[in-house]
UniProtKB/TrEMBL annotation:
It comes from Harpegnathos saltator. This is Uncharacterized protein.
Length: 123
């Protein structure tokens, strides 16, 4: 508190792209609300929030490659392997695991569906 009161805002860290994206999603912030929050913070001299462009980049990084997505008038589908690969890459990035350090044999153990909600469309 003392550092903030004395104008020493260097202790305040800027959110990462992923943290800023999580903030907007968790708080349900629209683009305009996030920009207003960022502008108000900047006016106070607190450069904590990234530009909305960086949030868009973080959001795009969560999407599977375009060539694995098929969209038509009647359906949309994504190759399962592409989703699994993306999930593994995001997990490894989150925990800062260097996959190039050595040859690694990693195993993804996951569960598919059957969470009790898969038949809700029958009601």
């Amino acid at each position: 508190f003392r550092a903030f009161r004395e104008g020493k805002s260097s202790d305040i860290k800027t959110y990462s792209k992923e943290q800023a994206l999580a903030l907007t999603l968790n708080l349900g912030l629209s683009r305009s609300k996030y920009k207003e929050l960022r502008n108000m913070s900047n006016v106070q001299g607190i450069k904590q929030y990234l530009s909305y462009y960086n949030i868009r980049l973080a959001k795009i990084a969560c999407y599977p490659p375009r060539e694995t997505v098929t969209i038509s008038d009647t359906h949309a589908s994504i190759k399962l392997q592409a989703l699994l690969d993306l999930t593994v890459c995001r997990i490894l990035e989150t925990y800062n695991i260097d996959t190039n350090f050595e040859k690694r044999n990693l195993k993804l153990i996951s569960k598919w569906g059957f969470d009790g909600a898969s038949c809700q469309n029958l009601y």
